[in-house]
Amino acid sequence: LFLPSFQDLFGVSMVVPLMNLHIKSLGASHTVAGVIGSLYGIMQLFSSTFVGCWSDIVGRRYSLLSCILLSALGYFLLGTSTTVFLFAISRVPVGIFKHTLSISKALLSDLVSERDRPLVMGRFNAASSVGFILGPVVGGYLTELEDGFYQTSFMCASIFLLNAGLVWMLPWSEENTSNREHQQGNKGTDSFSAKANRDLHLKSGTNGAMARDSLFQSPWIQVVTVLKRIKGIACSDLWDIFLVRLLMSVAILLYYSNFSLALEERFGVKPLFAGYLMSYSSALGVLAGCLLGPITRLYQHNTYRILLHSSTLTCTLILLYASALSIWMVILSSTFLAFSTTVGRTCIIDLELTIGGNEASGMLLGVGQSVTSVGRIVAPLLSGIAQEFSPCGPPSLGVGLALVAILIMNANKQKYCSHGNVKLKNQ
Predict the structure, then answer these.
(1) Residue 10 CA to chain centroid, in angstroms?
(2) Which residues cross the membrane (predicted)?
(3) Rounded to an integer, what distance in angstroms lies between the CA atom of residue 121 and that of residue 108?
(4) Is 410 exposed, middle or buried (0-12, 13-18, 19+ CB in 10 A)?
């Protein structure tokens, strides 16, 4: 699963940086290019929850293969896009079904124990991040060739087809599709409120059989089941976790929103240096993903405390950047921010799965992706307003949002802490 995740982001990151240049070459205006980009984000926003829940119903193998193949179709169509209309059409299957990494994370959650989950998720994120670092370099080289964008798109589609073959070859079995230690970890612990449990709870022993039977259900029955599960999570008490995720996502996006422009205005640094600094941070983020094992052991696998401390560190580092008097303070904040954000991103996912339960891991990860998508929509608007006052406006606003997230976590401390582990108390 680590290899497909690496190849996934490697292929995508080859194409994405070149898309604006390509659509402009097709004669699209800045407004049309922006609208198409926004439509993709909106499709991701609404589809992630449904696709994640669908993977809980029909099984990881069927849903993951479907998403990979339909994403490959989208990038193949992108490679044939000679008009703006074809370009827009090619983004539809990708916008709806490009949730391959989320389903892979849900599958990993099924396969490993709660104790090992942060370590495995950290390594998974590190593998995919390496692909994201290398992809733009290869894509930039290929685009120099004749018809480079089309070749890059076809190569990306081929990578997705290769991923489909790798996923098909995985040693699937009913025993492996449910978390072997999930029942032990959840004895005496309810994942949701009673109402949510009635809609969401699937016993581990019947996961494989139910997923297999669901393949033969009519699409209408599958849609009704998805809607019931979404209603269940809407009525659960996970709102604070998703709110923390939203606030921290927006805070980090505000930090990066005007990074290059702010460095140029504040310190006279050229955009090239800002690009190097962001690549440096990405590389450190990969290292942080590999260090999650020792970190979780140091905290005795208390995900709540790790998340609280990493969020506090993130807030402090954004404040340091906003008030930096020299470029060296910016470099210092970027160095440690790469660690804190990587650790926090992994811990918030682990906390969602710990509280929500592995039986609905696909839906929980889908809802989390939708929350992050909301942040991507809101952050540019807030950044634009804040920049009217000061180049330091966006990160300063991010500090305020991060503080609110920390206060919410502190207010709900008793809810998550139970015998040193992150568990939701019995309803």
Answers:
(1) 15
(2) 62-89, 149-170, 238-257, 277-296, 317-339
(3) 8
(4) exposed
Residue reference for tokens 């004895």: 187
Alpha carbon distance 55, 67 (integer Å): 10
CA angle 125/127/128 to nearest 5° reads 65
Q: Give exposure, 26-41, as e/b (b: 16+ Cβ within 10 Å).
A: eebeeebbeebeeebe
Q: What is the pLDDT of residue 24?
A: 82
Q: Which tens digit of pLDDT belongs to each residue from 339-378?
A: 899 899 888 988 888 877 666 677 888 888 888 888 888 8
Tens of pLDDT along 107-117?
A: 888 888 888 88
3-state secondary structure (DSSP) of residue 382 = helix
Q: Please give the structure tokens belonging to residue 117.
A: 């989950």
Hey, which residues does 417 pair with through a beta bridge?
A: 422
Q: In which residue ranges of the chain is pLDDT below 50?
A: 174-211, 419-427
Helices (H), 258-360: 259-267, 271-290, 292-298, 303-322, 327-356
The DSSP code for 268 is -
* Predicted local distance difference test score (pLDDT) of residue 417: 63
Considering the chain, what percentage of its residues have pLDDT values greater than 70?
A: 81
Spatial separation of the C-alpha atoms in residues 311 and 402, rounded to whole Å:
7
Give the Cα-Cα-Cα angle 279, 281, 286 (nearest 5 degrees). 95
The vertex-71 CA angle with 343 and 18, nearest 5°, equals: 75
Residues 6+ apart with CB under 8 A from 234: none
Placement of tokens 């040693």 in the chain = 171
Q: Three-class SS of residue 270?
A: coil
CA torsion angle for 43, 47, 48, 50 (degrees, to 10)?
170
